[in-house]
Structures
1.
Amino acid sequence: MTEPTSPPTERSNPDARDGTGCEVAGCDVAVVGAGPAGALAARELARSGLSVMLFDAARFPRDKVCGCCLHPDALSRLNHVGLGELPDRLGGRRVAQVEVRTPGARRTFALPSLVTVSRSALDAALTEEAVAAGARFLDGTRVRAAAVHPGGRRLQLERDGMCWSQHARVVLVGDGLAGGLLADEIPVRTVRHSRLGAGTLIDASRLAGAGLGEAQLVMACGAGGYVGIARLEDGRASVAAALARPEPHPAGWVGVRAASILVAAGLDLPELAGARWTGTPALTRRPTRLAAPWAFLIGDRSGYVEPFTGEGMGWALASALEVLPAVQEALLLARCGAAWNPRLGRNYVRGLRRRVGARRFACGLMGAVLRRPRWTAALLGLAARPRVARALVRHGYGRRVTP
Ligand SMILES: Cc1cc2nc3c(=O)[nH]c(=O)nc-3n(C[C@H](O)[C@H](O)[C@H](O)COP(=O)(O)OP(=O)(O)OC[C@H]3O[C@@H](n4cnc5c(N)ncnc54)[C@H](O)[C@@H]3O)c2cc1C
């Protein structure tokens, strides 16, 4: 990817696959990042009649580090916006049970409703929904900056070495854990000793010899972190991990640590040590605020905690829905030339906290228990009692949300 060597011009073509240039008109809302948060926000805003541009640096369809489990909360949020049939349409697999393993114990929990679907399929389908609603989607396009500009922000974009700029009245930043847009305006606090995320995709047929049932999700917990394995609709299996980084950390430590956690938990997948892993930055993080003039953070950029119960996509969808009224109000201000009102950001924070605050707190607690193998083993011991097991499942997977 080339750095712009001169100030970006106003020229380019949003449908620039053919490389021809033309003037870019501004838009009401620019959405940066086409993960679940960005794609759903773009869809909902386009449905309300706004001009919406959705940008993603990656070419779609793309995979990403994820356990690929749609938590019941995520499913009910999709349902709420009329996309409840999407996981089935994509061939998503119902997961009837999760098996939690530690080196000394193993327990299987029946699950109420959990579906796995690959991120390449899910995120592509959500962006198609956004486009069908009227949003314009440009993949392979990196947003390099989004500086405050009269009546909104001016984005600097880059695609295949071509640079241009475009005005947007409001910018939604949904560029994920590794995203850095507006990092200079909104610093992020990372929780000390936060684990790192890592993931790889393997051929699911390799799981046969490792003792993994057809509809099963397995979570293996050990001293150095935990690893989840889930079968996907396309014959692959996602292997996603939250790992403590050893010091020193030699090259290839991720695969070695993940494989050793699995082996200690009785799952022998030695090829994972040599698989191609993709890592993420520290998982548990919180930005100092969720809005800056004419911009809001959504999805993982609005805060994240370790993902044992696989709720990140549900939270991302929640943030996309919660930010909508704030965007509409900001547009009213921008259209009549009024100044940015910080109250919009505060209202968004309060609303998002109401939707996901309790779940994030509960996941944080769960992460704290899982850091201590003895506590995890004790919890699994207690879960031999059906009442305790049911309470744990309700705590982790069973709660119904107000979308
Ligand atoms: C190990 C692990 C396991 C997980 N397992 C689960 C699970 O089982 N279930 C679950 O619900 N969640 C899970 N999650 C969390 C989930 O993956 C995230 O919460 C979710 O993807 C967040 O969506 P998002 O829309 O915020 O961003 P993302 O899905 O991360 O998308 C961000 C997008 O922004 C794009 N981008 C970045 N920078 C730019 C830029 N400058 N310009 C343009 N585009 C840009 C990227 O290319 C990317 O496509 C897991 C996470 C990890 C790390």
Note: Residues 325 and 348 are 8 Å apart (CA to CA).
2.
Amino acid sequence: MRSVIFLAIAGLSVFGSAAAQNNKPVAKPLKLYVVTGGHDYHMSFYRVLDEPGFQVNLRPHPGAFDGDLRKRADVILLYDMAPVKEIGEQGKKNLREFLESGKGLVILHHAIFDYLDWDWYTKEVSGVTQDPNRDRSRPDYKHDVSLQIEPTAKHPVLSGIGPFHITDETYRGLIIAPTNTILLRTNDPTSDGPVAWISPYKKSRVVVIQLGHDEQAHLDPNYQKLVHNAILWAGGRLN
Ligand SMILES: [Zn+2]
């Protein structure tokens, strides 16, 4: 999970200029609340967010879940990696209220390891946790793996996405709940298999995407399409 470049800019707003520049009337922008912190990432991540129609609010820990999130976000995109103590009781309450209100959540890459010590979150929301009995003689992650990715469901998040090739980091040693709807998988032996899924959480739409380590993923058109679809679907803009 190592990365090279670290960037955390409190409250940076990266937003929605592309829609304004072409002078076309646009739909109300989707308020995308991006949470970072606790893990390095590459600058190329911002290219994934650079989409007309997204009004991006970038919030690193600590304090990412302060205040009423329902007013500030249509979709929360997690690209952080934090233990639950990082967000505290008030942060837990705010995130839970946000999700119970029906707003969307997208969990990207190392954010799969978020809040592993918060049972409600891993069991109900993300549908994933780390296997305490995993084979520790082998690494839990591998960088720069050449992957063939296959869709395994019909779903709006896969609109315009067929089988594709990508070079990215894989994880293994996760417990991915059987109640998830698996969208994409790989047969690479360094991976647990599923690399994108819909969680069974009923009160809001939750998409988990394991892919997304560095520019090899961030700049990949299939990856960008996948994340954009996930955000739109989680926000109720794609059906
Ligand atoms: Zn990574």
Note: The first strand starts at residue 30 and ends at 36.
